[in-house]
Design a protein that fits this description.
CATH topology: TIM Barrel
Structural class: alpha/beta
Strand content: 5-15%
Number of domains: 1
CATH class: Alpha Beta
Radius of gyration: 17 Å
Helix content: 25-40%
Largest sheet: 8 strands, parallel
CATH superfamily: Metal-dependent hydrolases
Bound molecules: zinc ion
Amino acid sequence: MIIDAHLHTSGRETTGEVLRTLDDADVEVAFLLAPFLTEPYSLEDAGSLRAGNRHLSRLVEGHRDRLVGFAVVNPLHPEAAEDLERAAALPGIRGLKMVPTGWYPYDDCAHRVYEVAVRLDLPILFHSGIFIDGRSGRFCRPSFYEAVREHPGLRVTLAHLGWPWCDEANAVGLIDRINGVEPAESQFRFDISFGPPPIYREEVFRKALDVIGPRSIQFGSDRFLPCSGAHIRRAIDEVKQIFDEIGVVQADRETIMNKTAAEWLRLCPAP
Ligand SMILES: [Zn+2]
C-alpha cells in the first residue's frame, strides 16, 4: 500500500479524476493540499486561500478513506488563525500546509496559527528548504521549525528533507533520538518529496535513513493535480530505484511508503 503524503491540488481537478489518477498510480491514500500555487489562488490573497480550502473540502468530502484534506493559511494575514478554524470545520479537512514566505516559522504570527492547529489536532506539513518562488528559501531553514516544540502535541512534517539543508533537517530529527524520543512520539517527520536533483538523491536518502530512520520518513510525490497516474507513478519509481541502489530492506520500504504517514495522521494504530 502506498500513501502519497504530499500531493498538490490546482483548483481545476474533480473528485472522479483524482480517484482515477490514484488508482492508476496504485496510491491508496493521498494527502491533498489546498491550491495556492496555481492561479487564481495565491498565498498573498487570503480570499483565494479561503476559496481554495472550500474547493478542497468539496473535493475530498465523502472519500475519507482515501482523501485527506490539508488546508492552507498564511500567518501574515491578520485572520489566519480564524481562517484555520473555519477551514477545519469543513468536511474532510484534517491537516494544514504552510509555506513560510515573508514570515519565519518562529514568528508570533506563526505561533498563533500553531495554537489553533494543536488545539484542533491538525498536523502541519511545512515546506522546508529552497522554494520555487526564488525568494523565500531563507525563511524555510529546517532549524527554524524547532519553534513548534513550544507546542507539545503538535505534529509536523518538513517537506523535501529541507533540501539543500538536509544535514540541518537530519539534525532536527536526530535531537529527538539523542534525547530518547521514539519516532512515533517525535513532533517531527520528514518527507522525501524531491527537492534534491538526481545527483544528490542517493546521498541524501542514505544519510536520512541512517540518521533519522524510516519511521520518521514518509513518501510524497509533490505532483500537481490534475495529472495522470503515470506522472505520480514516476515519482514512486524514482524512490524505488534509490531503494534498490542503496539496498533498503522491504520492511523499511513499507514504513516509508505508508506506515510513517499513516501513523502521523493517525489513520491506523501505531505499528
Ligand atoms: Zn509541494
